[in-house]
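Technical note accompanying the year-one report. For the benefit of new consortium partners, we illustrate the data format agreed upon in the data management plan: each record pairs a sequence with a structure-token string. No post-processing was applied to the example shown here.
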Amino acid sequence: MTYEEYAVGAKERIQRLQERLKSKQYQAQPLRRIYIPKEDGRQRPISIPALEDKIVQRATVELLNAIYEQDFLECSYGFRSERGSQKALDEVGKIICRRPISWVLEADICGYFDAIVRRLLMEMIERRVTDGSILRLIGKWINVGVVDEGRLLLTETGVGQGQVISPLLANIYLHYALDEWFEKEVKPRLKGEAYEVRFADDFILCFQCREDAEKVHEALTKRFEQYGLKLHPEKTRLMEFGRIALAKSEKKGGEKPATFDFLGFTHICKRSRRGYFTIQLRTMRKRLKRSIKAVDAWCREHLHDPVWKQENVLKCLSR
């Protein structure tokens, strides 16, 4: 059912939905599986919930946000009110440019949304939520099956990426599996300074000392194993990064320091016009190529459109 169809008699439909929730007759519908292409040519599975499930999930998210916004740490930026990717990128710049940071751990979790252990997730939620009705709803949503090419598939792990409530559940899981652990257990034991910046399942860890960085890298792998998570062996890298790395590269002459990718941008050690250390951001090469291909395809398809129309569309695409 589409939003336009549901809008016809929407008030009565919402009332009936509310009655089913109160009488515990509400049933979550199986998710519809679609695939979207990734930069590397693979397909990313997205699970689309039914419209009424979206409505109930949105209301539940509003309720749970009031609880978890009191718990989530400052290092978390994804899917939170008055936060976002731009603020996360700004924080990365402040940490590396203003603090004595010399090492960066660029981390990537393999298939994060599909790897979440539901039993552990529910145990985490039960620490803060005692309402049985809310817990039952969440249990229904994470255990509902997925319809893929006409077949109903049931899995034992994961939360459907594409559900309204999935980003919040993903934040809750990493809040306990990573954020609290790093802040309360790891940082007090380190020799130097250390910082985390996380946007959903995309995060980096910044360190002053190489010894600290190597120990945390090893400990993080073991920590994630306890929660069913695995760091991508090729996309997870520990590198020397910062003003010291830039100074070393300048002494060697011509050899550029390592770079890392975060939230769609490649971070590069540079000097400003006045000679101060700074970080330059460039769109990741694979995303830039994808955008250029999309513009090229549009131009070929609309080759015979009026020039003024092509100009207006291309201006919008370039923003």
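Partners are asked to follow this layout when depositing records. The chain is about 45% helix and 20% strand.
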